[in-house]
Every structure is written in structure tokens, then in C-alpha cells.
Automatic annotation (TrEMBL):
Organism taxonomic ancestry: Bacteria, Pseudomonadati, Pseudomonadota, Gammaproteobacteria, Oceanospirillales
Signal sequence bounds: none
InterPro entries: Aminotrans_V_dom, NH2EtPonate_pyrv_transaminase, PyrdxlP-dep_Trfase, PyrdxlP-dep_Trfase_major, PyrdxlP-dep_Trfase_small, SP_NH2Trfase/AEP_transaminase
Database matches in PANTHER family: 2-AMINOETHYLPHOSPHONATE--PYRUVATE TRANSAMINASE
Protein function: Involved in phosphonate degradation.
Annotated organism of origin: Oleiphilus messinensis
Keyword Amino-acid biosynthesis in record: no
Domain named Aminotransferase class V: residues: 60-313
Gene that this sequence comes from: phnW
Protein name: 2-aminoethylphosphonate--pyruvate transaminase
Amino acid sequence: MMMIPDNPYLLLTPGPLSTSPGVREALLRDWCTWDRDYNQIVQRIRARLVDLATRQTGQYTSVLMQGSGSASVEAVLGSVIPESGRLLVLANGAYGKRIAQMARVLRLNHEVIDFGETGPVDLDQVSTRLKSAGAQTESAFSHVALVHCETTTGMLNDIAAVGRLVHKAGATYIVDAMSSFGGIPMDIAELEIDFLISSANKCIQGVPGFGFVIGRRDVLASCAGRARSLSLDLYDQWQCMEQNEGKWRFTSPTHVVRAFDQALFELEQEGGIAARYGRYVENHRILVEGMRALGFETLLPDALQSPFITTFYNPESEHYRFEEFYQKLKADGFVIYPGKISQADCFRIGNIGHVFPADIERLISAVERNRYWL
């Protein structure tokens, strides 16, 4: 029997991320997409996701979609917004801009408010734009989309405050919670979110292969025939799963689904989302305090920072090279992320996954050992 090697390093990234032995072991069994046992797993996952998202479970349903998290975002945009609709995208990073790019490709009538890569969402500006667009007019926005945790920087956007403005304007609220759902307490009914999108390989700590959408039943039920794609038809996927007790329309990532089921079980064993959030917050505290003690500066002010991924400025030294720093940390057992913004020379470190405070303490020691530019 072939031995599976231990992981050579921790992935300190925003996903894919380091997974538990139990999640990796769950990948070892084959499953049939038509089999009742497998489809029962799918149904159990769908119910658990809604339970995690809200106490008002009767109002919401969930749909699993093959592909990356971005595929699920595109499925929502292309399946939910009618030809007569108008989308307002609130962007402050690469993933908000990706939503806008999807809107262009899908030929959606849309507008973007770009707050810059390090700027928080300006609520007054959003309110003014929604009011000036009017209501019940051709210029009104029917849908508003926002990224919760913008992993470009690690910024955590105020989805509650935006939700109140969207609801007041009578629009449908779409939230990309790719890097936050499962890692921070929320109730999407209280937040007035109509569609929340996330991925298997983020805070629930599964592996890549599918995303999921948690949406209001009544809103999703009105979306028949709107899809601009066959494979990414959210409504048809939902109907197939509803009517066939968990069956996917096309071949599903069976191993990944089973691993995600295990990841959900491990989330429950940890104490649920509140406990996991507490671990991520502690990871982040140790990381930031340790890096600052070594002379590193964070890109964002603490008030805007999420506990999921943190951006640090690169050292101002003629001897420093990110690639060399990266390789030294990798040799010590840690993989970090390069920067993603254009305004600053920086790198990022993720705090999520099967990663614990002791691991972050080991990382800080490794960073101290590998400051070759000093």
C-alpha cells in the first residue's frame, strides 16, 4: 500500500489551506454520484450550511456548484439578475473588481463604485448613489454585490450596514463571503442577505472543488429561465437537488464533497463557528504582535482588519527579496502569499485552516531566524 507523506509545510494562505488529517483521509474512498448514500451526504451538507447561516432556516436553501468559488459567484450573477435588472458593485479590491468583470462578460447592466484597494466602503456614498438612482425607475438598482472579506488586503467590509441600505432601496443583496463564511458568526437573515456565496476550501476547511450558495427560497424560486449559462444555472441545479434528493445535474466532485462533510463534522466538534472564530482571532493576534515586534508593519489599520488574512509591508532594505524570504520560510515549513495590490510593496499571511496559535508562534520564530537582510 502506498504511503501518503506528511504535509511538508503549512499553507498560511486564504485557501486552499492546510486541512486536518481527518479531511484528507475522507478523500481516500470512491463514491458513485447516483448512489443513495452519496446523495444523502449532499443533502446533509445542504441542511448544515443553512443551519450555520441563519436561525430562520425555513426562509433559506443551499445549492452546491462544481468549480471554484468564482464559478459560484458567476452562477449567482448569471442566474439571478434578469435582463431588465441593474447591478451595483461595491469594490475595494481584486475580488470586487472580479465581480464587475463577470458582469461585463455576462453583459449585465451594471455600475461600479470603486473605493480603492485600501479604502473601506463609504456608506454615505452608497446611500447617495442608491437614492439618486431612484426606485421603481429604469435607473434603479435591482441588485447590489459586495465582498465581505476582501482577501486582496484582508479588509473586512461592513456587510450589516450595507445590507440596511440595500434593503431600504428595495434591492436584492448579494454577498461574496468566500473567505469569511464559517469563520465568523453571522445570521444572513438578520443581515438581510438574499444570496451568500462561499467555497469548500475556506473557513470550513475542506478542499477545492466546489462552491456553494445560500439563498432565499422565494427569491431563487423566481429565477427560472434567467441563466446565461447551462453549467452555471443556479436555479436548475437547485431544482435537481431538491427534486432528486441531492443529485447534481452533472458529474460532481464526489471525493471533495465527502471531505467537506467531514470538515463540517470537525467544525461542530471544535465548538461551531464561534469557537473557530476565536481560534482565528487568536492566530491573528499572535501573528500581528509577533511581526510588529520584528519590525514589520501592517497595511491596514486594525479597525478594518479581518482575522483571516493579514497584509504586511515588505522591509525597506536593498538586500530584501520576497522570493528569497518566501523560499527560506518554505524550507522551514511555512508557505505565505505574495502581495496582490498595486499601491504597496507587500506580502500576505493567512490565519485560517487547520492552523493553531502554536503554529503561528513557530512561524514568528522562523521569520526571526530568516531575516537575512538585516
